[in-house]
Write a structure and sequence with these properties.
Ubiquitin-like (UB roll), globular, homodimer, 12 helices, L-amino peptidase D-ALA esterase/amidase, alpha+beta, nine-stranded mixed sheet, about 400 residues, 16 strands, 2 domains
Chain lengths: ~400, ~400
């Protein structure tokens, strides 16, 4: 498996575009299209929030047959809490793009991200959709940029493994939380994989990646991860495919965590040797979502008491008097109590832009990793002023 | 029912003290004693965090007989994650105070709040305990001040209803979350109520108050609410007693929420007309705990999309297309979509130091209120630097 260029355009038969249609006040790119030259097998995983965006509802309908050929995405407005009109708008976008691309409307998936409760400027969107067929190409970064909201940088990757290639772009910076919260990830591959298997592979990768990140506790209304497999590279070894898809999704999840609103560093929490896999996941996620832990990380303060407290409220089975905690390679806690450690050495570790925390539960053999970031003044600033 | 002075000392037969024993580096008061002149019926509710402080373990033991006569509290160090030595220390504090007060050690309850993972300075504590019997008096604010950590002001109340009086002091500013997270509340009454009933009344009041506040998502390891009833005023009407206790606990909960670390305002979220009582509680709590909602409140931004999203991730049954939202008396959302409202008028409402949000679910007849605060730069600042 090796990294290659061109993200979603790396697999055979895929093209993309990113452009300005005029939704964002900033004047930045706000519209993207991903396209496969033949109908592809397709699968998706959606937000668990009960309030669901209109695009998500339409995408779900269009994916019922397990086939899709294009994904049309806008940023700036999420088209959520917009009632019947919102759903009609999402349908019209799909239909209009389908007409331009000479495919069926049910083969177009739609996604929107941005402000909740506002209507899409349909005139500008429909003007922007005109002529997209000729604008599609093997492009490098435009689609990744056009789906950004408060993201500071584009999130993209492509890997080649055996005979197939997998590419992905993603967005997500605020409202990112376990259970697929405000993030979008679009994955393309030229491997030949039927839709039902694709769904299984995607679900498995998402559980190890996007469901293990947290920037804050809020689950978004619009999140989805979608994969299109157009078959140009022929059948793939299933194990190798799952491995490659895991890698792609975990790398994208880390990029999202590192780009958490206001974040200064990526934090990786591994819960090792938990009693059950679910306990390991609960512990890692409880620590990564604790505001107090995240503030301490911003302050480069090895406040392990807050970690113990977060583990205690995780709902997992554990015995605190067995637990060890390491920050990087320095042991902070030994059998549930303070270890003697060099405070300066730990602070140096905490000041790096990637901090690894390991919790050894000594209760069993199950491990899980969660990814997040520190909580900073800028997190508050960004979220106190972000509005229409 | 009317407000009276002297908080925990207001009911007949109770005295208290607050003093400096030298645990806090700031040199502020860090030690308090509450005392009843006769053994009292007693009950407590504890944190649900699986990591429990040593004082909590000892208090639980001493409360097994439903009787207590004194509560001894220190602030500055929580005596949590301190292993066997922590428990021995807590026992020694109780025994030493009991000796001074001429009562049995099992009638002394102990509580500690502050930093996790450090040992108590036992020499200073034991010196401080010497002579407490002569220092106890009908005092006004000292005990309330001595139990503070990052609290900005003391939290105290007393009410007289019918023949009985109830008084309370509390602390809590950070790590405050539903399910009794880092807060202490000590309640005294001269009503005569047997311990088993006292427990039932306390649990019911806590569910409406301390379990409905949130400053952040972290559950503490040391929280407890304790009530002592010494019977000097004779039997009380049970309904009146529950009403008075509810009032005392809700007022203390609001004071804690308003004093949330870095908070600039108190926020009260009421979920009305939910299908079930549990749904109403879930909805109110999900909104009050959302970082994004809290940041928007700090920015005086009526970002109702974040509220909808928080309701959607609450796990409660609801129909978004029925929902109305009011900020104060201004309707922001009508049947799940934006209502036409005067932005300036809403901003004026949001700028006040107490903001009331009402969510009308129109799904049934159950209501619940939750209390919290906004999230600010100072929240991050306080929690990035608080350390030994």
């Amino acid at each position: 498996m090796k990294l290659v260029e061109n993200n979603v355009c790396a697999p055979k038969g895929f093209s993309a575009l990113g452009k300005i249609v005029g939704i964002k006040k900033s004047g930045k790119m706000d519209f993207a299209v991903l396209f496969s030259d033949v109908p592809a097998d397709a699968a998706a995983v959606y937000t668990s929030n009960k309030v669901k965006g209109a695009p998500l509802i339409v995408t779900k309908e269009h994916l019922q047959d397990g086939k899709a050929q294009a994904i049309v995405v806008n940023s700036g407005i999420a088209n959520v809490c917009t009632g019947k009109k919102g759903i009609e708008d999402a349908r019209e976008i799909a239909a209009s793009a389908a007409k331009e691309l000479h495919i069926g409307a049910e083969d177009v998936l739609v996604a929107s991200t941005g402000l909740i409760g506002a209507y899409l400027p349909m005139d500008r969107l429909l003007s922007g959709i005109k002529g997209i067929r000729n604008e599609l190409k093997k492009e490098k970064h435009d689609a990744a940029k056009a789906i950004m909201t408060t993201d500071l940088y584009e999130k993209e990757i492509a890997v080649k493994s055996e005979n197939f290639t997998i590419g992905a772009i993603a967005k997500g910076a605020g409202m990112v939380h376990p259970n697929m919260a405000t993030m979008l990830c679009f994955i393309t591959t030229d491997a030949k994989i039927p839709a039902d298997k694709l769904k299984k592979f995607l679900k498995s990768s998402v559980d190890k990646s996007f469901n293990m990140i947290s920037v804050d506790m809020d689950m978004s209304t619009s999140d989805m991860a979608v994969i299109l497999a157009n078959g140009h590279a022929g059948s793939a070894d299933e194990k190798k495919f799952q491995q490659a898809l895991d890698f792609v999704c975990i790398e994208m999840a880390k990029k999202i965590a590192r780009d958490g609103e206001g974040a200064t560093k990526l934090i990786e929490v591994e819960a090792k040797n938990a009693k059950t896999a679910e306990d390991a996941r609960k512990i890692a996620r409880s620590v990564i979502t604790s505001n107090l832990v995240k503030c301490a990380f911003f302050g480069n303060d090895p406040n392990w008491g807050r970690i113990m407290s977060a583990v205690g409220s995780s709902g997992a089975e554990f015995n605190e008097s067995l637990m060890d905690i390491h920050f990087g390679n320095v042991q902070i806690v030994s059998r549930g109590a303070a270890a003697a450690f060099d405070f300066r050495k730990v602070q140096d570790i905490m000041k790096k832009d990637c901090l690894k925390i390991t919790l050894d539960m000594k209760q069993g053999r199950e491990n899980a990793k969660a990814y997040g970031c520190d909580m900073t003044y800028d997190y508050v600033k960004i979220n106190a002023v972000y509005h229409t």
